[in-house]
Design a protein that fits this description.
It holds the Pfam family Zn_Ribbon_1. It comes from Coprobacillus cateniformis. The chain crosses the membrane at residues 55-75, 87-112. Residues 2-24 form the Zinc-ribbon domain. This is Zinc-ribbon domain-containing protein. The protein is mainly α. It has 2 domains: 1-46, no CATH class; 55-119. The chain has 4 helices and 2 strands; from the N terminus they run H-E-E-H-H-H. A two-stranded antiparallel ribbon has the order 1-2. The longest helix has 40 residues, at 80-119. The termini are far apart.
Length: 136
């Protein structure tokens, strides 16, 4: 028999999985498909043995966010830990660009206000001389 939560093989007469601690029910309660009517949860997917968090995928998702989002969507069911790494890199990229935008805008406003204070614009400085020419 296999555990419905982690997918590892366990003995027939145990009530709890020794690997993940999930409660194992008899066939009349579990129906053999991962649906448990006692707690109304479906635990059909399990973690694959080669699934692990990866800093490389997070870094790739940080520098190329579209790739990170696509990888997250593709791997969210089969490789949840890798997918989580990808989405973390994607979110870090978004946060980075928002912070950079805020810093640049505050710098521009600071420079503009400092320039305005130093120049002391006077509207009377821009008087124009208009000369009329007669048509003959």
């Amino acid at each position: 028999m296999y555990c419905y939560q982690c997918g590892k093989q366990v003995e027939e007469d145990v009530k709890f999985c020794p690997y993940c601690g999930a409660q194992l029910n008899s066939h009349d309660q579990n129906n053999g498909n991962g649906y448990n009517p006692i707690n109304q949860n479906y635990q059909g997917s399990y973690q694959k043995p080669d699934d692990e968090s990866s800093f490389g995928y997070a870094l790739l998702s940080f520098f190329i966010p579209v790739v990170g989002l696509v990888l997250y969507l593709v791997w969210s069911k089969e490789y949840p830990l890798r997918a989580k790494s990808c989405i973390k890199g994607f979110i870090a990229n978004i946060v980075f660009y928002v912070l950079m935008f805020c810093c640049i805008m505050s710098g521009i406003v600071g420079i503009a206000s400092q320039y305005d204070d130093e120049v002391h614009w006077n509207h009377n400085d821009f008087n124009a001389v208009v000369e009329t020419v007669s048509y003959e």
